[in-house]
Amino acid sequence: MELKLTIQGVLIYATMALYGIAMAAALIRRVRVARLLYVGGFLAALASYLYRWQHSGHVPMQNLFEVFLTLGVLILPITLLCRRLWGIESLAADLFLGLVVLFPAGFIFSAEPQRLPPALQCWLFVPHVAVYMLAYLFMAKAAGQAAGQLWTFGLADAHARYELNTYRLIRVGFVLLTLGLILGSWWGKLAWGDWWGWDPKELWSLASWLVYVFYLHWRYLYGRRFPRCNSLLAILGLVVILITLLWANLSNLFAGLHSYAT
After folding, report:
1. Rounded Cα gap, residues 85 and 226, in angstroms
2. Are residues 149 and 235 in the same domain?
């Protein structure tokens, strides 16, 4: 573990502290206090992100430190969007997710700024990475709803609500994953001269996309007849995403064109 005794680190730890206290408030049903602390944490996360942007000289999405920092900023807007569109109230779970994604930025990955390699100096860099970050958060929220469905099995109302929320979140996340694949192929053509390079990161990205293709086809065919299977597929999709994000980036055995992500 690497403790960051810098302005960047203090901002990250302040965000984590506010998210943690907000989660505790949400668990004891102090919802208004939790929401205010959540907003405070978001502002600290945004300050951390803007500080990193100014310090590094580029949009902070280059390596895994910056990716997890980005995820920590995006969680509140997604919470608000899901609440407004579908009435999904998952305040404590979202705050926990915010803590989880900020932990690697705060304690694991180096915050040493890096220059953008030539392959990343393309206008597709930001939209390609951004849509994947949004997709990953939607799929993480979907997996959380799926876990709730499995946990509340037998409670009809909660069971149905969790299953429907999972489906709604995956539909949005799937569109974003698809857009990420398309933008990545376009970028690959510009950067490396080919639409598809059979790189480990590309293959795992395709694998995660195919899991959700199967989920959507399965649910279209069977609806809610097999809700536990629906939820298990949603959780499997997140597992493959984690492999894509971490193992495919960090593995020395299968290093590929995306090795700059480390």
Report:
1. 26
2. yes
Q: Could you tell me the pLDDT band of residue 3, with boundaries at 50, 70 and 90?
A: confident
Name the H helices within the chain.
7-27, 31-56, 64-86, 91-103, 125-151, 156-192, 200-222, 227-242, 248-250
Q: What distance in Å separates the CA atoms of residue 158 and residue 79, rounded to the nearest whole number?
A: 19
Residue 158 pLDDT: 79
Q: How many domains does the chain have?
A: 2
Q: Which of 13-22, 155-164, 220-229 has the lowest mean pLDDT?
A: 155-164
HSE (side-chain half, CA atoms, 13 Å) at 15: 34
What integer pLDDT is reported at residue 259 of this predicted model?
53
Picking from 98, 116, 134, the residue at the C-terminal end of a domain is: 116
